[in-house]
Amino acid sequence: MNLYDLFVKPYESYSTAQILLEASGTVFGILSVYFSIKKNIWVYPTGIISTLIYVYILFNFGLLGDCMINVYYTAMSVYGWILWSKNSKDHVHVDVSWATNKERMFAGVLFILSLALVTLIYYHKPYIDNQFSMQGTNLGLYHLDWANWLDVITTSIFLVGMWFMARQRIENWIFWIIGDFICIPMMIFKELGITSVQYLVFTIMAILGYVNWKKSLKEKSTIKS
């Protein structure tokens, strides 16, 4: 696979509008991560725009299973937006902290439930992608390759990461770093070169976010003492 096949060929059949729409989703996604690093509530408006764009793109491509997962991302972003609004003194920025043991236990349960939910969606994906028709459709996980199974795992990782972020917990960045890093080779395998570069950028930004939030908490603790 050369650079042309990875970054250009997949987009030859796309219209200009489709390319601009996907690019817009990517830009808003990067903006969302940037605002998250800054502990700025605009992480959610920009993130919602990005996920809604991908909901539209995936729906039009008939990828309804993936579309439903992005609908969940959108719902989690609304939940996070509400929590950050309540916990922000200036209605823009929030304070951060480490998760409690109880929250970490809940995150473990959430991860397992997310694995079950996403696997269930993929089990019914042939039916969903066939416009909710069983005609000529066989349910099951037979259609999944190793990249799809990684997608199941990373989706669950991201869902837990979104929950930790909504709670303003530093641990969210650990999940984003792991999930984004896994997605890089997965997207290359799917011949989505531009998206793989996006996840590389996300990985770097997530590392910066982790460092920034830890530094912010340390500075706050120093001021209090």
TrEMBL record:
InterPro entries reported in the protein's UniProt record: NMN_transpt_PnuC
Any Pfam family: NMN_transporter
Localization annotation: Cell membrane
Keyword Cell membrane: yes
Name of the protein this chain belongs to: Nicotinamide riboside transporter PnuC
Chief place where the protein resides: membrane
Topology relative to the membrane: Multi-pass membrane protein
Transmembrane segments: 15-35, 42-62, 68-84, 105-124, 146-166, 173-190, 196-213
Keyword annotations of the record: Cell membrane, Membrane, Transmembrane, Transmembrane helix, Transport
Function noted in UniProt: Required for nicotinamide riboside transport across the inner membrane.
Entry annotated with the keyword Cytoplasm: no
Family: Belongs to the nicotinamide ribonucleoside (NR) uptake permease (TC 4.B.1) family.
GO function terms (MF aspect): nicotinamide riboside transmembrane transporter activity
Domain of life: Bacteria
GO cellular component terms, semicolon-separated: plasma membrane
